[in-house]
Fold each of these.
Amino acid sequence: MEVMYFIYQQEEPMRIDKFLANEMEDFSRNSIQIYIKDNHVLVNDKVVKANYILKKGDAISVTIPDPIDNDIIAQDIPLDIYYEDSDVIVVNKPTGMVVHPAVGNYQNTLVNALMFHCHDLSGINGVIRAGIVHRIDKDTSGLLVACKNDFAHRNLSEQFFNKTISRKYYAIVYGVINHNVGRIEAPIGRDKFNRQQMTVIEHGKPAVTNFKVLERFKKYTLIELALETGRTHQIRVHMKYIGYPLVGDPVYGPKNVIGETGQFLHAKTLGFTHPRTKEYLEFDSPLPKYFEDFLNELRSNE
């Protein structure tokens, strides 16, 4: 099982269930209510109810129970492997694939495929996220590293925390960005009007996205993005915030969605220091065919 810890640092009082809904971005509000009801949430080592009002300094722990072992199965799903050794594996995830199982969806994810291929995966985040150090959205394609043991997992987690991991994305956005480079520094949190979405919000988690323009078209721009933080939907939220939402994004883009593959966003480059050998490794993946086809279509219309 996984245990998550928080310290409530705000001056204003807040209900425990609302606070956890903001902080635990990967969990539904219903799941959080169940954890509280089943006594998996403690404040200052005491069981609380959903309406408990947090005070500054409260120490919160949430125990995430492991799913039933039979729920998570190894599946023989093809993997596009860029690198593999006894510690780590780097794969190029296709668009449409979910990274790890969630309630009601325990099959056909990257974790199911890794469990079949690797057999041994790190267990720090429990069975449901075996080996997973970082995620990319279901409809985002590209490079992702997973860990085969807890030693590698702890080391790479520290690299992510210290922001020494190199991650570069390619995206196509609506509109023509006139300046060549940009930096977006805006906090991100759960949208209070739509719990399924994230948004720039005053008391959100710090988030920083850097980008540079690679190619301009009549109505679109191809950009490269580098992340300093890794918030849920960060690129999609930040680009919408500055007025250039991602093409194909059914959540943060215009209602008339282009394409059938989701947002045109690809995790192209991934670099990290190998946890055991200390060698710096960097990998680069080509854009998916649907991405290149759309770019070629835009170029032909210039």
Amino acid sequence: MGKLWGGRFDKGTNRFIEEYTESISFDQRLFKEDIKGSIAHCRMLIKQGIIPEEEGKKIISALEEILKEAEEKGIPCDPSYEDIHTYIESRLREKVGDIAGKLHTARSRNDQIVLDVKLYMKREIAQIISLIEELQKNLVKKAEEEIDTILPGFTHLQHAQPVSLAFHLLAYFWMLERDRGRFKDALKRLDENPLGSCALAGTALPIDRFYTTELLGFEKPTENAMDTVSNRDFILEFLSTAGIAMINLSRLCEEMVIWSSPEFSFVELSDEVCTGSSIMPQKKNPDVAELTRGKVGRVIGNLVSLLVTLKGLPLSYNRDLQEDKEPLFDTADTLKGALKAVSLMIEGAKFNRERMRLMAKEGFTEATDLADYLVKKGIPFREAHRIIGEIVKYCIANSKRLDELSLTEYKKFCQEFEEDLYKAIDIENVVDSRKSYGGTSRTLLKEQIERIKKERGWQKG
């Protein structure tokens, strides 16, 4: 087939170079966006009197036919088509003849591809936000079930203070809430219509960019044509946001890997999200968690790839920018898959409440509360910290827990200790004493869960 730009050239493109430079093998997924943009552009050309209405209607009708064909049969991966724009224009010419060439009036592939990618990203981000919310919903549901489950909170992977499992799970809810917010912010910055910027400098023809902006559902048209066709920072922002989201998922998955090990035995993951060993019959491997943890590398790599591609590009369009799509598509696919898989993992997870509670009493997790007890008796915190440290050392030497020491033993370290110290280090009281806003008190957690459910409309179902 003839190239859209073939008039300037005497020789055809070398077949290897066609294969080397083609993008239709991956940008074909943009066919819906490309046709949507073309229909909007054609309607604008009709409205402005740039092409006759009768011809414009034929073009639109043919584009709708091409869309239906592509949905049913797919796009042929022929490198001679170069890209999705060329394929659609070629099919249009086959259907309506030479008037197909009028569609490209006041438009370049440079603004066309930015349009396609932005429309694609708006659709993908909406799906990603929905998947984040589904995972958040599962976390809240589990948190509501596990408010009374107590486990050790960790710092440095060492026992620190006892917390409610609901508190721990909601920590991931709020991580994901920031991810959700970042994707919403990213939508705001890409919600500008590039169509009509043409190659880099706009057009002398009387187009109406505000009309296509309205037709395509953008907030406003872009302000500078040169910036428009060379801009890919909206993709960088998406890749960065996706990278952060994947890292947050990876942290959750790391804990599921650790917690499902026999040494912890905090959780049993559903058979549906695990696999076995080809040689060891007893194995149940947390593959979803491990694969999600592993896929973070490719998402971060995609971000770095595009950062490096863009770092030295002069304005405006350069063919290097073709390298933006594969990292974008791979990241969107990977993140959506990870969100769905992790959501299924959390939904089917069964937590070992007895084991968690047992371990919450190990490692002197009530020590800070014992120090606070002395502070309430008027002892400076640093002095209280020293006293409790000595008591912990004594417990270690005598193989005792804090709740196993007698009052007589306590008084050897400080005369301010009274019988009420045992109430202060009771594990339920320790958890519920954290009443500062954002703390692990079960009362606060119940209020937080109800607030979240009300704000999201999750009270029913």
Amino acid sequence: MKSLLKEDLYAKIFHSALLAIAVTDKQGNFMAVNPAWCKSLGWTETEAKTLNIKDITLVEEQPIINQELNKIAQGKVSSLRKEQRYKRKDGTMFWADLYSSALFDDKEKVIGILDIFVDIDTQVISEKVHGELFQSLEILNKELSNANIGLKRQAKYDSLTGLYNRWVMEEMLNKEINRSLETKRGFAVGIADIDDFKKVNDNYGHDCGDFVLVKLTQSFLQKIRVTDSVCRWGGEEFLFLFPETIEQGATIVVERIRKSIEELNIDYKGNLIKVTITIGVSFYNGQDHLDAKELVNRADKALYKGKSSGKNKVVFS
């Protein structure tokens, strides 16, 4: 009597459970399924008894299922848990957590397998969406970071020559003026302009003009001192900052720069391009009360004098 009551209780639990439960033989053939299983997978109880576990499993995952069934059937493991996709009757797929346990007879011999399917489709999809969203956000963050780096670089450097731009150099000039006032050591500022640069653009095109600007930049960087700076001031003009120097020292460096351009041979698509530069220089002695704009204006006036008196020369204000 107690045995019958126990079996009846198990039957009620089996049929009333909200989780999909199935019993298969050792070969994976379905022997019994509960209503929750039928609702979840779409087959009737009668149809289920004509199916094998392989029929609800993806083809590529069937070899693994065979291995795991054999382990349970042979008593090598008493239970297992795995997360994988399963097929419904209508062909749709869903993710489930599978809990499989061996069923034993009175002699502890495996006679079947109890499978409990926990539908985790929503969870897996949610995790996948979150994962894809997180990945997309990471990519977007990198793109924004790169864009920010690019913007910062654009704010500091000339896009063609890679030199500091005008705004950075103005800040450097102000700092150098303050330093000079404290140390009483002078510095020099030079403005270089390419002589007759319009002829280069007119004769060979603006691409050639850009090429010449880059070549001159390379020469400038080779001839200035480590402590010196140069920026593209605008168009074909370049501004040099020579910190902590006397006029004699500045003259040597500026003349070296001018001469290097005079001797420079630029090959553009088989065309030999020769250019010269004129440089106007102003000197700050550490006592003058000039701001950056006034200092540059002095150098610019010296440049104009050089242009008016023959070009290809260095003129001090």
